[in-house]
């Protein structure tokens, strides 16, 4: 069926990814992260990596599924409690402690997701908020979390029975490896057959339904994956600080990860990492000064949202330089 | 399709006493409809008559207030819309429904992924989907979209988006096809092409289409149902319906 197609819209080839630029940037980032602990305070770097992974996990939902969860602290902080308890009270090795945290977060995600997933927009956010507040009160009351005190002096233990994580350098490279693994999982998830369907659902939900996709189940799958990865970040954080605390299950923590993600740019892999880096750095810097931390971060956030509507990384991708380097921005 | 001749009338989709109220407003009332295999059935009527609402009811995007719907012998009055699609009835939308940031090829592949069971693998690379390219490219070829294979759907002209939507719908090889104004906003050239495609695909499928272009309706449709203010005004073949004085005053008179 050859037809004359002399219309205005000429074929526009999808922009080829500038693979070389990306690989170069990736190698540079890897080099920096490997060298960083010899120049910067390792605990700060580990905190940064944990929050970066947390934000990236959150973005799996906001950026790649189009769902705004206001309850992600449940998975981050919940996993921290599970890991800390398993390691400290049951004497589990760190890797199994973290796995328990991940499994617990995934289970919590399944419950919260199943309840909230059929709601849209603000209702979805409100239900996740309400459920995470319930979890907060559970953590406040439950015995094993030790209420206001939290679970303190959690031993880091020996990874696989051999690597002593109480040594800061060992711990740093362990955290870096977990971070890299988490990012790899997210990258694969986004660029997979499942990720393609998620993208289709985000772009036109009604059309996806009319093609026979049970969209609620796909969204739930993404929700559980996001919760599990947030749990991975939370479990590792508990070992870094040797401490699991109520702070990590508060609604403020859920808000903070939204802020990091929006700041960096939703729907990009790197955006949440940059956003988390900025927020954590700012908090660290302000903690030693007299400025009120929340007000300053709030102001920075407002300024960024006004100036960089797509987030810092999203804005860079959409800029002339970004496009010249072969990045594509979706929003 | 078995041994049954494609010309034998066989009802694949039927509605009885279908009705929908929005608050106090009755948008659709007492609609009876029989859509047959290998036939093209037009649903026409003035703006706001309730055509799209009937589509939404039949495909279960809206839950009917009254009445019953049967698809391929199964009662689907309480079935979810994605299930209806999996049972073999696929619809298009009045406002063109493509996935704008996916390429033309990817749009069609999304439809192919589910039947090929390549929709849930979150651990496999994207290139796994290349095994669907062959089938997708055949569809693009059939609909004259090959040149735009790698263009983003958002960059297509309006008419071509509609053609892509049809390609995506056909990718599912549905038994029943519901097309809501498939030719709206197309140039003459494309209208003729799409009419020809619909005629072609209807040789083995039932098609129910909303269409304002009456020459197309006269040309390709076997059955015509006229809707007015949510109720059926007339039904029959085009000659009968267009001769009906009530239809002439209610609908043809207002047609540009
Ligand atoms: N979700 C809704 N809520 C309230 N009223 C609705 C809804 N959907 C449709 N209607 C009303 O129902 C009536 C029928 O609308 P419908 O879209 O089905 O008409 P149509 O025949 O498809 O018209 P058109 O030719 O303009 O596409 C209209 O008066 C419309 O305003
Ligand atoms: Mg309509």
Automatic annotation (TrEMBL), chain A:
Family matches, as InterPro entries: ABC_transp_permease, LivM-like
Keyword line: Cell membrane, Membrane, Transmembrane, Transmembrane helix
The keyword Membrane appears for this protein: yes
Subcellular localization, as worded in the UniProt entry: Cell membrane
Keyword Transmembrane: yes
Pfam families membership: BPD_transp_2
Bilayer-crossing regions: 20-41, 48-76, 96-115, 122-144, 171-190, 220-245, 257-279, 291-312
GO molecular function, one term: branched-chain amino acid transmembrane transporter activity
GO cellular component terms attached to this protein's record: plasma membrane
Membrane-related topology note: Multi-pass membrane protein
Protein name (database record): Amino acid/amide ABC transporter membrane protein 2 (HAAT family)
Organism: Cereibacter ovatus
Upper taxonomic lineage: Bacteria, Pseudomonadati, Pseudomonadota, Alphaproteobacteria, Rhodobacterales
Automatic annotation (TrEMBL), chain B:
Coiled-coil annotated spans: none
Domain ABC transporter: 13-254
GO cellular component term of the entry, any: plasma membrane
Pfam families, A to Z: ABC_tran (PF00005), BCA_ABC_TP_C (PF12399)
Source domain of life: Bacteria
Keywords: ATP-binding, Nucleotide-binding, Transport
Residues that span the membrane, as ranges: none
Xref: InterPro entries: AAA+_ATPase (IPR003593), ABC_AA/LPS_Transport (IPR051120), ABC_transporter-like_ATP-bd (IPR003439), BCA_ABC_TP_C (IPR032823), P-loop_NTPase (IPR027417)
Keyword set includes Transport: yes
SMART domains assigned: AAA
One Gene Ontology molecular-function label: ATP binding
Protein's name according to its UniProt entry: Amino acid/amide ABC transporter ATP-binding protein 1 (HAAT family)
Species of the source: Cereibacter ovatus
């Amino acid at each position: 069926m050859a037809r004359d197609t002399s219309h205005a819209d000429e074929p526009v080839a999808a922009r080829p990814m500038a693979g070389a630029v990306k690989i170069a940037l990736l190698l540079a980032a890897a080099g920096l992260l490997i060298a960083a602990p010899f120049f910067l305070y390792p605990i700060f770097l580990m905190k940064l990596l944990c929050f970066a992974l947390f934000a990236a996990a959150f973005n799996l939902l906001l950026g790649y599924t189009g769902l705004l969860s206001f309850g992600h602290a449940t998975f981050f902080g919940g996993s921290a409690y599970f890991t800390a308890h398993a390691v400290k009270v049951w004497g589990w090795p760190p890797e199994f402690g973290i796995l328990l945290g991940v499994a617990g977060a995934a289970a919590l995600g399944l419950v919260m997701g199943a309840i909230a997933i059929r709601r849209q927009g603000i209702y979805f956010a409100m239900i996740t908020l309400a459920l995470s507040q319930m979890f907060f009160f559970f953590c406040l009351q439950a015995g094993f979390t030790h209420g206001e005190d939290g679970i303190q002096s959690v031993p880091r233990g020996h990874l696989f029975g051999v690597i002593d994580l109480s040594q800061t350098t060992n711990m740093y490279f362990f955290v870096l490896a977990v971070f890299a693994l988490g990012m790899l999982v997210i990258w694969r998830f986004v660029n997979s057959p499942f990720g393609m369907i998620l993208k289709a659902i985000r772009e036109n939900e009604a059309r996806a339904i009319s093609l026979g996709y049970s969209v609620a189940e796909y969204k739930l799958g993404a929700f559980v994956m996001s919760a599990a990865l947030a749990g991975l970040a939370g479990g590792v954080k508990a070992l870094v600080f040797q401490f699991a605390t109520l702070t990590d299950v508060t609604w403020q923590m859920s808000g903070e990860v939204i802020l990091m993600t929006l700041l960096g740019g939703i729907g990009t892999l790197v955006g949440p990492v940059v956003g988390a880096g900025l927020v954590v750095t700012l908090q660290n810097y302000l903690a030693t000064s007299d400025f009120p931390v929340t007000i300053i971060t709030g102001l920075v956030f407002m300024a960024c949202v006004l100036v960089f509507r797509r987030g810092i990384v999203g804005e860079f991708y959409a800029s002339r330089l970004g496009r010249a380097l072969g990045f594509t921005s979706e929003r | 399709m078995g041994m049954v001749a494609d010309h034998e009338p066989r009802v694949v989709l039927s509605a009885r006493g279908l009705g929908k109220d929005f608050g106090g407003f009755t948008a659709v009332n007492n609609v009876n409809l029989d859509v047959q295999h290998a036939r093209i059935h037009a649903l026409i009527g003035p703006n706001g008559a309730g055509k799209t609402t009937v589509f939404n009811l039949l495909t279960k995007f809206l839950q009917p207030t009254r009445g019953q719907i049967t698809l391929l012998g199964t009662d689907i009055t309480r079935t979810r819309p994605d299930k209806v699609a999996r049972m073999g009835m696929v619809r298009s939308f009045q406002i063109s429904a493509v996935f704008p940031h996916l390429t033309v090829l990817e749009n069609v592949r999304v439809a192919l992924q589910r039947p090929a069971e390549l929709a849930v693998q979150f651990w496999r690379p994207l290139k796994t989907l290349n095994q669907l390219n062959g089938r997708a490219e055949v569809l693009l070829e059939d609909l004259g979209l090959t040149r735009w294979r790698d263009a983003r759907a958002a960059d297509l002209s309006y008419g071509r988006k509609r053609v892509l939507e049809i390609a995506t719908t056909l990718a599912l090889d549905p038994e029943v096809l519901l097309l809501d104004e498939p030719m709206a906003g197309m140039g003459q050239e494309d209208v003729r092409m799409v009419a020809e495609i619909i005629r072609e695909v209807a040789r083995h499928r039932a098609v129910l289409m909303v269409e304002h272009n009456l020459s197309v309706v006269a040309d390709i449709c076997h059955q015509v149902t006229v809707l007015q203010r949510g109720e059926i005004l007339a039904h029959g073949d085009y000659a009968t319906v267009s001769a009906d004085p009530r239809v002439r005053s209610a609908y043809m008179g207002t047609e540009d």
